[in-house]
Every structure is written in structure tokens, then in C-alpha cells.
Amino acid sequence: MKYALIPIFAATTALADAPQVQNVTVTGDRVDVTVLHPDTGWDHYADGWEVLDVDGKRLGFRELFHPHENEQPFTRSQSGIVIPEGATSIFIRTRCNVDGWSDELFEVTLAQ
Predict the structure, then answer these.
(1) Is the Cα dihedral 65, 67, 71, 74 positive or negative?
(2) Closest CA to 11 of 3, 1, 21
């Protein structure tokens, strides 16, 4: 099942260098996330993102094992993410190895 997406950006107070979600595509159990972050190398880079339901429950996690200082923005995928039946949205939250989890959530509205 492919969802039509209407991204809605919901922001709270965020760290200056927090990785930013640029785009999300959901196809069945696969989520593709495009991230922008000023990676400087192994000392500071975006090192993961997670998919959350509306209650904040983790549906999936994608660890990023190396910096992408020469590839910005970059897209990575995670399969096996089960979105609850009837869900109308999910949230993506990013993490970097210096500042930890971002306070920003990127909302993806799932139009079925």
C-alpha cells in the first residue's frame, strides 16, 4: 500500500545543529527519510532517525553509522515498519552524535 503524503512541520525549541527532515516517503512497511545536517565528519554528524506514532511509541529506528559531510541532503530507508491500521499520521525525529535527539518532529499525514 502506498500512502499519499502531506508533510506538516511541527517544531518545538530545537538545537541549532539538529538534523532537519527534508522529505519522507512511505511505501508499505518502508519509510524513506531525507535529512539535512551540517555534518563535519566523525566529530559531529546525524546518526539516526526514528518513526513514532501519534502517542510517541517507536515504530522503527534507522541508525546512521557514518557522517555524510559530502552528501547533503541524504536519503536513507528503513523497512519492516508497521504503521497501525487506521493511523492518519506518523512522526519522524532525528538524532546527531553530539546533541542527541532533536526536539523537532516532522509530521507525515497519511492520506489513504
Answers:
(1) positive
(2) 21
- Provide CB contacts within 8 A for 64, sequence distance 6+: 45, 46, 47, 48, 49, 76
C-alpha cell recorded at residue 17: 545543529
CB 60 within 8 A of CB 108: no
| Residue of 35, 23, 25 lying closest to 3 (CA atoms) | 25
Which portions of the chain are predicted below pLDDT 50? 1-15
The full DSSP string for 37-87 is: ----BTTB-EEEEEEE-TTS-EEEEEE--S--TTS-SEEEEE----PPTT-
Phi, psi of 57 (to 5 degrees): -75, 135
Q: How much is the pTM? A: 0.80
Task: Identify the pLDDT of residue 112.
Answer: 64
- Alpha-carbon distance 106 to 98, whole Å? 20
Count the neighbouring beta carbons within 10 Å of the beta carbon of residue 3. Answer: 18
Instruction: Please tell me the distance from the alpha carbon of residue 105 to that of residue 10, in angstroms, as a whole number.
Output: 6
